[in-house]
Amino acid sequence: MSNAITTPAVTPWHATIRTAVLASVAVLIVLLAFLWPSYTSKVKDLPIVVAGPTAATAQLTQALSATGAFEITAGTDRAAAVTAIEKREAYGAIVTGRTGIEVLTASAASPVAAQALTGVSQKLAAQAAEQAKASGQAAPAVTTTDIVPFGEKDPRGSNLAVAGLPLAMGGMLGGVLVSLLVTGHKRRLGAVAAYAVVGGLALAAVLGPWLHVLTGSYLGAAAIIGSALFATAALIVGLHGLIGQPGIAIGAVITLFLGNPLSGMSLPKEFLPWHWGEIGQFFVPGASGTLLRLESYFPNASMTHGWLVLAAWSLVGVAMLWFGPRRDDEGMRHEHPSAAQVTA
């Protein structure tokens, strides 16, 4: 009997270099995926309302439209402008009246948009002061009011924006673990559903009652988070059942490198180039992030689109899991052993 020790084959240099190059390309793609949206974004097409008498708002509307930064809708009065903001039809408003000008912002909709409107308020105040100095009359008052602010524990909304990435990674992690550790399509579906329920309740407790990042209903937030976890995990598990191990990588790319950067959690979707902001709302991170924002701060806004997006991704994932050709590859071997295994 030979006691010789087999030495593992050494990786050839060309394969080593190829691996290093592929790893470098991968990290470059990751960097671009996360930096590109913010780097190429600019203040443009921001929906706002300009309300007040036509004679008083015509010149203001023309001046704001010329900048290309705003998409303006005419409003009748302050109440109409507030309603548009609360329904997420506008990020803010400029209301003119006899006593002066009031700029309405909604920092909970987007701190960046609120900052842009605050800049407009400051310019209007400076112009009013110059005109008053030239005419010798008192300058009209220019005030700024935050209609929908963030909660006291997260006044700048930074925690809500940061929460988007862990939620996306959470759904992806659950899908990967279920794909690798659970066999049989029924058991995988059960594991994904259980993960969504437990994870939704746990993450909502952290973001809500514990850290107060979310200020709305705890159960409402848990339902949104759980649905997002289910949609992402089901997609990855379904792709794994459809095409095997490459499906995990494809699911990660869809979720982390496409959906998350385009989600609009940090920037208004209107600021992204081309139509990428709108496209991002058809991915799970964009839909779930918008739903969480609406549930916490804009209860009067419609949530139909977000729920439909989560439902669609969930159905696609479940369909691939249920009918995929690899749905029970491992499970069948464990649950129905071959004749040789039985007689062994």
Automatic annotation (TrEMBL):
<protein>
    <recommendedName>
        <fullName>ABC transporter permease</fullName>
    </recommendedName>
</protein>
<feature type="transmembrane region" description="Helical">
    <location>
        <begin position="246"/>
        <end position="267"/>
    </location>
</feature>
<keyword id="KW-0812">Transmembrane</keyword>
<feature type="transmembrane region" description="Helical">
    <location>
        <begin position="20"/>
        <end position="39"/>
    </location>
</feature>
<keyword id="KW-0472">Membrane</keyword>
<feature type="transmembrane region" description="Helical">
    <location>
        <begin position="160"/>
        <end position="182"/>
    </location>
</feature>
<feature type="transmembrane region" description="Helical">
    <location>
        <begin position="304"/>
        <end position="323"/>
    </location>
</feature>
<keyword id="KW-1133">Transmembrane helix</keyword>
<feature type="transmembrane region" description="Helical">
    <location>
        <begin position="217"/>
        <end position="239"/>
    </location>
</feature>
<feature type="transmembrane region" description="Helical">
    <location>
        <begin position="189"/>
        <end position="211"/>
    </location>
</feature>
